[in-house]
Specification:
The complex is a heterodimer of chains A (240) and B (139). By secondary structure, chain A is α+β, with helices and mostly antiparallel strands. Chain A contains seven helices and eleven strands. Chain A has two domains: 35 residues, no CATH class; 202 residues, 2-Layer Sandwich (Alpha-Beta Plaits), CATH 3.30.70.20. Classes of the chains: A alpha+beta (240), B mainly alpha (139).
Chain lengths: 240, 139
């Protein structure tokens, strides 16, 4: 680092060099596989509830397929990384539909309560469970205000190479971290929603003022669910 | 740990497999492993353990010492094109660990076959794979 750069600055520079502009506002951010993730980016999702259809389950299905979350016929305990919710305002009766998943908080309660450090937040804002250190105590499941996590009760088989999962561990939405690290810059749910023509879910970098997600939030505003908890969620909702 | 080391050292030093006394080592793809054979025999778990923390926590996804990369070369299809599962003695990892008397739990969570075994990594192939599993009767 003869130029007086810190390691972090140097790597960020390298990351920027790997960014390729596909179209105005659309970047393919090719992460150097050797470089650790940094807080230069913060990945998040923006959900427009007006575009989300009540009878559509495409995001949930896509998530299940991406990570091979199998339906064991026991809905009480089956793993669920995204849930479709329908909420109704008693005043006037307005009904909206929305996907609910890990909100990738900046101050995640699941991380606060984890006794082993298995629940952690990556530098780029993705909240994950390190299943190597998870002891399955499920404190995080109790702490999460969004009920975003699932516990695996049974032996699993047929896990996919990009989605290791197993008995005795807690798991939740990973924001398709394998796709993000591969530079695909999308999630299975956002892709599926887009393909179905609803375009209710948008993935992007909340730190980049020029990203589509930041522009939309700046222009139209977006809310956090349970903003009163001060968690600064990475998943934001419009038209709640 | 000491026992484990000594067992592995024993395998390594005697080269038992050549005489039919040791584990059967299935043929791998490619010419050369990412490290010399001797180094891998003695220290492969250290490499994987180190890589696992780097990958999970920092998103460093170099393939040189990743479990996925091990499987890419060392788990190869048989004559019928079928990839061995970790529960079978023909699986590279299982074979040696059964011989050494060490139970590994990597494959309780991790895929035990390379990407290739799942067909082309496209949404379509995963869909059909999933459909296949869905049709299995619930125990």
């Amino acid at each position: 680092m003869s130029l007086g750069l810190t390691r972090r600055e140097f790597l960020q520079g390298a990351g920027a060099a790997g960014a390729l502009t596909l179209a105005p506002g659309v970047f393919l951010y090719a992460k150097d596989p050797e470089a650790p993730v940094t807080d230069a980016v913060r990945w998040g999702l923006l959900v427009d509830t007006r575009l989300c259809q009540e009878d559509c389950n495409a995001c949930v299905d896509a998530c299940n397929e991406e990570h091979n979350l199998q339906d064991l016929g026991r809905p009480e305990t089956d793993a669920q990384w995204i849930r479709k919710l329908t909420v109704r305002d008693p005043l006037g009766g307005r009904t909206i539909s929305l996907p609910m998943m890990c909100q990738h908080c900046e101050n995640p309660p699941c991380v606060d309560v984890c006794p082993t450090g298995a629940s952690f937040r990556r530098e780029d804002g993705i909240v994950l469970v390190d299943k190597h250190t998870c002891i399955g105590c499920r404190y995080c499941m109790m702490a999460c205000p969004y009920k975003a996590r699932s516990f695996i009760h049974e032996n699993l088989t047929e896990q996919l190479p990009d989605a290791p999962r197993g008995k005795g561990c807690v798991e939740s939405c990973t924001l398709c971290v394998h796709k993000v690290d591969a530079g695909e810059n999308t999630t299975a749910c956002a892709e599926a929603c887009h393909k179905d023509g609803h375009q209710a879910i948008l993935f992007g970098d909340l730190n980049d003022p020029d990203s589509e997600i930041s522009k939309r939030i700046r222009e139209f505003g977006a809310t956090q669910i349970r903003a009163d908890l001060g968690l600064n969620t990475g998943v934001r909702y419009q038209n709640l | 740990m000491l026992f484990m080391l000594s067992v592995v050292a024993l395998i390594a030093f005697t080269g038992a497999s050549a005489e039919g006394l040791g584990p059967f080592i299935p043929k791998a793809k490619g010419e050369q492993c990412v490290e010399p054979t001797q180094v891998m025999r003695e220290r492969h778990w250290e490499f994987i353990l180190h890589q696992r923390d780097e990958t999970v926590h920092k998103g460093i996804r170099t393939t040189r010492h990743s479990l996925k990369n091990c499987l890419e070369c060392h788990v190869q299809p048989d004559e019928e094109g079928r990839f061995p599962r970790s529960s079978e003695p023909t699986h590279f990892c299982t074979n040696c660990h059964v011989f050494a008397g060490i139970r590994i739990d990597c494959f309780e969570c991790h895929a035990d076959r390379p990407h290739e075994a799942y067909g082309a990594i496209s949404r379509h192939s995963r869909l059909s794979l999933n459909d296949m599993f869905r049709k299995r009767p619930v125990r």
